[in-house]
């Protein structure tokens, strides 16, 4: 009886949410011009409404399951519900299973040559994956596709996010099947929160390219330390070191010089607009939440990086596909692909480079740590700007080039002084003990 009641409430909430989303969608279409510069607001609202039709019924189901212990019922039909709520499919997790984890064997001392070879492999993989991803990302969102009779631009950022996520899910899923991992204990529903922020950050990133140039986007992403510091100061009264304030000022100066020196309007490229600035801010906010939420999950449930990648991308596939189905995104994107076969290849290469790039991220961090990874990715951002300017004709004056140099110099100085600060903290206990 309780089971039927739970299913009935879930279905009612799903229908009510869908009706509410349909009504709001019609109102938004009337209020906002579909072809105007602010049309991205309409697409953003449609995306949120699509996610809501998944979130609300799932929230109701989770609450009912926890209240009536539906996930403890026997039978294979409840395994998926247990996976959502507890992170495993077992009715009772044996106590001995807590020790059944893949214990990392102590790595043997590697020669300098093997370390250098491994670093070169990771560095090359990251550079190729994300440089290709950046080039194709800009091509898809800013360039026109022609089939001989019709010339048009692709406009559905949600579809590109879906393609990237589904291939990343397949890659991580296959990896989990081939290689043994820790016992998975993370409730699937907890992945959904960072999945929403992750997909929205990607959506904002793609949409921003309609209003700002790719070099501007890359520099803005490099400068995300500034809003993070401001938020920390306002919300948690965080204290920062002098080098952190100095590098933040340098990044601000570099960004200002770049924007003043990127004279793009003369060549007819996208210029920085209010919409572009808002979308870039949205990207920074959502991306910051994703990193913090994932960090909290690592601390609480200790999933492996690949398990995290698989769980987040699974939730992202469910959310983006539901939104695409409701608002006709699949029909538009597939019909566009049918008219432009080159677009299909661009999409597949973008998704492939994104998925392989994620695998290289995990490999680099696990072998060489986050500092080396940050340096590699900072170099990649500089190369991305250079390639974008060469391939797509973005004009940078000497002032713009100086701005780019200042930004990346500030990032490297920040990394260097952060490492020096960590070393001083590590050496402090030893010096205090020796004095006693």
Automatic annotation (TrEMBL):
The chain crosses the membrane at residues 40-62, 116-136, 159-179, 243-261, 273-293, 399-417. It comes from the Eukaryota. InterPro entries: SCL35B1-4/HUT1. Its main location: membrane. It is found in: Membrane. It is a multi-pass membrane protein. GO terms for cellular component: endoplasmic reticulum membrane; Golgi membrane. Belongs to the nucleotide-sugar transporter family. SLC35B subfamily. This is Adenosine 3'-phospho 5'-phosphosulfate transporter 1.
């Amino acid at each position: 009886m309780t089971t039927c009641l739970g299913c009935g409430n879930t279905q009612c909430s799903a229908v009510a949410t869908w009706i509410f989303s349909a009504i709001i969608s019609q109102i938004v279409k009337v209020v906002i011009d579909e072809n105007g510069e602010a049309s991205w607001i309409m697409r953003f609202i449609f995306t949120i409404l699509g996610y809501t039709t998944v979130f609300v019924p799932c929230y109701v189901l989770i609450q009912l399951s926890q209240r009536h212990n539906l996930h403890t019922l026997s039978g294979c039909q409840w395994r998926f519900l247990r996976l959502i709520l507890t992170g495993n499919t077992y009715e009772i997790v044996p106590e001995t299973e807590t020790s059944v984890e893949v214990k990392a064997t102590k790595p043997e001392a590697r020669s300098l040559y093997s370390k250098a070879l491994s670093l070169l492999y990771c560095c090359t993989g990251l550079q190729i994956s994300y440089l290709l991803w950046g080039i194709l990302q800009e091509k898809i969102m800013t360039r026109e596709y022609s089939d001989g009779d019709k010339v048009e631009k692709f406009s559905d950022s949600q579809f590109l996010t879906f393609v990237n996520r589904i291939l990343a899910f397949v890659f991580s899923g296959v990896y989990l099947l081939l290689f043994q991992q820790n016992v998975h204990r993370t409730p699937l529903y907890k992945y959904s929160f960072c999945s929403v922020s992750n997909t929205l950050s990607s959506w904002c990133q793609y949409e921003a390219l309609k209003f700002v140039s790719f070099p501007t986007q890359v520099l803005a992403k490099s400068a995300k330390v500034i809003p993070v510091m401001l938020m920390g100061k306002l919300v948690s009264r965080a204290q920062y070191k002098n080098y952190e304030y100095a590098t933040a000022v340098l990044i601000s100066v570099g960004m200002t010089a770049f924007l003043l020196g990127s004279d793009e309007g003369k060549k007819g490229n996208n210029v920085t607009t209010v919409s572009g600035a808002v979308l870039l801010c949205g990207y920074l906010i959502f991306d910051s939440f994703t990193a913090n939420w994932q960090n909290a999950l690592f601390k609480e449930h200790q999933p492996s990086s690949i398990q995290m990648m698989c769980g987040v991308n699974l939730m992202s596939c469910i959310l983006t596909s539901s939104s695409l189905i409701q608002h006709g995104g699949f029909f538009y994107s597939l019909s566009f692909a049918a008219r432009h076969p080159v677009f299909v290849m661009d999409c597949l290469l973008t998704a492939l480079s994104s998925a392989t790039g994620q695998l290289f991220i995990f490999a680099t961090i696990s072998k060489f740590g986050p500092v080396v990874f940050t340096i590699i990715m900072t170099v990649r951002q500089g190369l991305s700007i250079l390639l974008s300017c060469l391939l797509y004709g973005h004009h940078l004056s000497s002032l713009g080039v100086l701005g780019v140099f200042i930004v990346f110099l500030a990032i490297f100085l920040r990394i260097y002084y952060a490492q020096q600060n960590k070393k001083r903290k590590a050496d402090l206990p030893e010096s205090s003990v020796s004095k006693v």
